[in-house]
Amino acid sequence: MVIPVWRKHVLRILWSILLIFTFLIGIVSVSADTIAFDEVELMQEGKFPKENRTSVWPASSSSKLTEEKITELKTYLYNSLVRFESPISLKDYNLTIDEFKAIYRDLLNDTPRLFITSGGYSYYYDDYNGIRIITRLIPTYFYTKSDLEIYDSEVKRILDKVDPDWSDLEKIVFIHDYMVSNYEYDLEYSISSAYEMFISRKGICQAYTLTFMELVRNLGIEVHSVIGVNHTWNVVKLNGNWYHVDTTWDDPLWTDFYIRPGYVRRVYLLISDAAIRDDSSHSTWTDSDLYECLDTTYENYYWWGKNDICSPFVYANGAWYAIEYIDKAYWICSYDIETGFKSKILVLNDGAFTYRYSLGFFDDKLYYLSNSGIKTYDLTTKKTALVYSNSEKSYSSFVIDDEMLYYEQKDYRQGTYTLKSDSEPEAVLQVSSELIRDEESGKVVGFTLVYLKEYILERSADLITWEPVPDVANEGKYPVDTRSKKSGYFRVVKKK
Predict the structure, then answer these.
(1) pLDDT for residue 210 is more than 90
(2) Are 171 and 236 in contact (CB under 8 A)?
(3) What is the Cα Rg of the chain in Å?
(4) Which of 350, 359, 398, 395 is nearest to 377 (CA)?
(5) Checking DSSP bridges between strand 202-203 and strand 184-185, what pairing results, if any?
(6) Is 8 buried (19+), middle (13-18) or exposed (0-12) by CB count in 10 A?
(7) φ and ψ at residue 208, rounded to 5 degrees
């Protein structure tokens, strides 16, 4: 569950009270060190930290902080935080207060999974001739282990869509298009973490940046965040070169047309420093010396701009598909992502201008919009079919994520459909070929029921009162001995 803004404010107040209480206790019980509190600016809290890399060290920093030592400390802190430990001992690292703050700020801003903790923290320190050395960290946790499990499951769900055989370019394009078509900008400006974006499917630029960083990094691709003028976006490394990627600005809200879900731009996908400096929000940014984006390979690429290909690239049955405007008509085409080579598949001759960007895939079928409603194109039979008619709802756009179809009507009302596979077995409960025989006579005295694991088997003697049958082995099987008085009647119910 997303923590509302008001609840965050309350938590901060409680945190402050707790720190004061801890401070008073520390005066009485601790004589070797002193407690204090501080705060770092975090993107996940809607801030724009201007120095989010540890390449910029305090003037008092000593030479003992090698890259190896910093990496070791970050790993230690990360493992301690995801275990929700408190306090965290830092005595072995001999860090000044400023040194720790720089490392902690960098770790939290570069690790979206650490949404669990706030930028505010308290700490104990020892004073050595006026130099304060931090000894223990007391983080402020705003979320729980169950929230972290939800986050991890959502990351896994999305990444399970990625074919490991894809090139890094295909992976980057997929994550970019998935985010731009499935998420929307938060017009209340309150959602800034990747966790909240996963849950609500919306966010501001910090949420877009952190989400892209989490997903792409999990695919083994180097990616970081940069901070501009009240804006943040990503830099990603592809084939040895750095490029800018701004999923926020590729998901614009400039006009009524662009608001529709499913619309994808690629103006800010894999571009250079020179190309991104065209507007004030991208005129300058942090760490420009660390991530020089000089290559222009993907500028004015076949996907570039906002007019020709505005649907997401959809991967289906080993090929990429999108909708493109060709020769004054909109076509579903198959593509080679790397080269842009395309083959025309289906002309959308009954479609209008606003229907050009809704495209999805489910159960061997491409879904697209037409004047008559939402249609499918079967990749095997090459046949089209109307599945959701405009006679009931006037559809303007949609996007498909797993088995869910999220649609919007022309009057801005939104809704969802749960898609059903044609290949799903109709018989969720049936008798298998496994028979039960009497050990002595060898006669058949029973049979085995099999059912889908998403269901619970229930038994009844009177068709009125039902009780669940335990599935000890979790195999979806149950032996029925007809000699037993407990054979009765059986049914299955969907697990909640």
Answers:
(1) yes
(2) no
(3) 28
(4) 359
(5) parallel
(6) middle
(7) -60, -45
